[in-house]
Amino acid sequence: MTTPRVRSSAVALVALAIGVVGCSSSSGKTIAVTSTNTACVPARTRLDAGKLTFEVTNKGKQTAELYVFGEGDKVISEVENVGPGTSRTLTVDLAAGSYQLGCKPGQKGNGIRADITVVGKGGGSVQAGSKAANRDVELTAVDYSFDLNDPGIKPGETILFEMKNAGHQPHDFEVFTPDNKVLGQIDQTDPGKTGKATLTFDKPGRYRYICDIADHQSRGMKGTFTVAPA
């Protein structure tokens, strides 16, 4: 008389096991990173290409930074001022390739490195081995608008955007292609800081840009520019 109950329990255990396996997929786009005085430990080291968010938690005793490095130790992006016991996020758009995360206790030195591998299709706005910039374009973010002159970009140009945050709130700068795909971005930049990103414009057309933090876009932080045919 107890067989049905045992069978039911076994089925439940199998279903639970399947659920646990399903939750262990490596396709998630948010990766926890633990920074201590002596270690930099990502929750996963094999990641899917595309837009990835690293959530760094500082379990050390000093204020820290998190960097993403590409080939040749090129700084792809960074987040600063991660205080002891606090967390911050860093979002980057990575194509397939080999990268390193760098945690910097005390915000100095070369940092403690951790190798990561990005696989699959997608991403590519900032990546290992990305093209050198043809020229720099400067812009300013304030609360709540961008000061950006028409950069006069031609198809095929690679531009290093440098954004100074002259406002009182953190801002970012996200660029979309004419077919409304994310080309790349300057990640969240704190007041008084300067953020950078290198983007390549392969096609002519109208590109738009926004600040993707909270309600900043709806409050006016948006605009467009045109990449004209050569």
What are the low-pLDDT stretches, counting only 5+ consecutive residues below 50? 1-27, 125-129
> Measured on Cα atoms, how large is the radius of gyration?
21 Å
Overall form: globular
Number of helices: 1
- Straight-line N-to-C gap: 82 Å
Name the beta content range.
over 45%
Order of helices and strands: HEEEEEEEEEEEEEEEEE
Structural class: mainly beta
In total, the number of strands is 17
Proportion of residues in helical segments: under 10%
Major sheet attributes = 5 strands, mixed
Strand order, sheet with most strands: 3-9-8-5-6
Mean pLDDT across all amino acids: 83
Could you characterize the architecture of this molecule?
By secondary structure, this protein is mostly beta strands. It contains 1 helix and 17 strands.
